[in-house]
Each structure stands twice: as C-alpha cells, then as structure tokens.
Design brief:
Elements (H helix, E strand, L loop, with lengths): L1 E4 L2 E4 L3 E5 L4 E5 L10 E4 L2 H9 L6 H18 L4 H16 L6 H19 L4 H31 L8 E5 L14 H9 L5 E5 L6 H12 L3 E5 L4 H6 L5 E4 L3 E2 L5 E4 L2 H10 L4 E4 L23 H4 E5 L5 E5 L12 E4 L6 E4 L2 E3 L4 H5 L3
Parallel strand pairs: 6-7, 6-9, 7-8, 9-12, 12-16
Antiparallel strand pairs: 1-2, 3-4, 4-5, 10-11, 11-15, 13-14, 16-17
Helix pairs in contact: 1-2, 1-3, 2-3, 2-4, 2-5, 3-4, 4-5, 5-6
Amino acid sequence: MKVRVDDKEIETRAIFLEDPINGIVRMIDQRFLPWRLVFYDSASVEETSYAIRNFIVRGALTIGAAAAFGAYQAVLEASRNSTQFLSEFINRLELLKNTRPTAYNLFHALNSVCSYVSGLVEAGVSIRDVVKSAREFAINYVENEIIEKNKKIGEIGEKVIENEFKVLTHCNAGALAAVDIGTATAPIYYAHRRGKKITVYVSETRPWLQGARLTAWELSQAGIEVYVISDNAVGYLMQTGEIDVVIVGADRICKNGDTINKIGTYKIALAAHDNGIPFYVAAPSSTIDPTASSGREVVVEERSEDEIHFVFGELENGMLARVRITPMDVRAKNPIFDITPARLITGFITEFGIIEPDSIGAIARQS
C-alpha cells in the first residue's frame, strides 16, 4: 500500500519479513495510527505473539501473516537436534495459537506451516533444508494465500460497486488488516482505479475505532472520498438513501454462512436487510472454518474492560494520551466480535467468485 510520510509517498505493507535469514519480522504498529507511522520489529516467537495479542498487528489476514512468519521463527528457534526439533517446533507454535481465539486465519496459517514442516521432517529432510524450505513456504503463503487472493476479490467485487455508489464498510478490512490491498476495501480500490466515482462511509467501530482511525486513514491516503460516521448513524443513513451497498470483512466464516466479524456487524446487517440494501462479506477461502457448522460453535473473544473505559488519541498540543470516558465506579463488558446469520448476507466475495451463503461451505474444500 502507498502511504505519505513527510510529503513523500512510500510503498509498504502492514507486515513483511525484513530479514529473512534471521527471521526478523517488521510490522506497522497499528496502535499509533493515524497520528504516527511507527514500525515494530519482532525477532522471536514471543515478540510476534506479543504483537498479535496486543493489537500491534490486527485484522484476520495480517494476523495470519504474522502467524506464518512466527511459525518460521519457531523453526529457527527449535533445536538443531533432529530428534527434538519437531516437538520443540510444535511447542513454540502453541505460543502463537494462544494469542487470539476468534480469527480463523491465525489457525489456518499455523496449521499450514506445521503440516508442511512436519512432512519434511518425517521425510528425513535435513534441518538445514527444513529451515530454508519453511522460510520459502511462509513467504509464499503470505503472497499467494493472502495478497493474490485479495487481488482477485478486488477484481470480482468491483462489479458490485456502480459509478457514484455510496459504500459502507465497518471496522478495518483494508491493507492494514490484510497485509496489502485488503478484503472489503479491495473492491473499493479496484472501483476507484477504474475511474468510478465513489464515496465511502466508514463507521467508527468502538471501542478500538478501527474504522475512524485506520480505514479512514487508508482510504484518504489513496485519494478516495471518505466520511467517518458514528456507529449509531448507520441505520439513519440507510433510511435516507445514503448507502447503496455494504461490504465488510470477516474474521471467521462457518460452513452454514454464519459470519463472525467485528462487533457491530450484526446490527449493520439487520439495518441493511430492513432497508433492502445488499450486504456483502469479502474474504478469501482461508477464512472459512471447515470445522464450525454455525456461529454458535465459535469462541467470541472478550477483552479488557479498559478498552471501553478509555480512549486513546491525539490532544490539541500534539501529544498522544489515554483518556477515561466512563465513571470510575461502573463496570464494562467488551465482546469484540459478533455473529451475523447467513440469512442476512447477500453474498460472499471470494477468490472463486461471489458465492451465495448456502454454498459457502463447499468453498472450504476447494481451498
């Protein structure tokens, strides 16, 4: 993605392997956007796990990329003793698995690398060659499973955006959440590049404000007209004809089409359904969990109360600060995902095409 720094345009990704030989992973620290562009370097599985758990990186596919690179770091950290290597490698993966419970791409990436590395070891490949092959596999996973599939999503999804459409998206399913072009934003970028005049409404997405902070920043960097709206304004704008189509991302898709995404997605889907507005979910097939029959089987992550009690932002003097917005003596509840039933979804924009909800389970078997 292109970003402007000190009036200069640079090309970067949300996460990449800065030093492939030593397993140094560089990622944009998303906690500081849009006020500062800060990079975080991880040199170990522990540091990559910390980055995932603490929202330095976030978004289902960027988490998946971090997991793939973290799994390569686990290969580097495992014993060079061939009899201990595989068990130590798998033990290191547990640190990554225990970071975030809901986004399926984390587990898809870890399972993919683990299966590949285990196969090499069981085939008698030397540890030296396993390290090299694991590095190439992790890099190719990010390029092919994430970036290339998202480009196809952009090409396919662009067709649901007509000229002069007003598009609503929720949270951040952009380049920051998906390494480069994004999922929900990929059709928006393709429509913009093909000369369509579009306006994007971005719901703020409490409590982390990923829409207001991250998606708005991304789209404005690309020169796309964007408005930030409060989460509670969505229904009214739909009633007054301000929204033509909704495109969101996904953290996990179940076999029946139930979709787990950022908290507030379900409410938006209900409002879209009530107003006859198409509601699309954009995600690659790696987001589909073939083991989950419905949303009821998925663990929805609940995070600290403090994320509700406090907001983080820039003061008028340019300083960044954390400010409490609730009374001292009240509690807070903070589930960060919700479940949108398949019946509310118009279609899934995938690398295979636009899929109807009752057919999405079959796509997992093709990926």
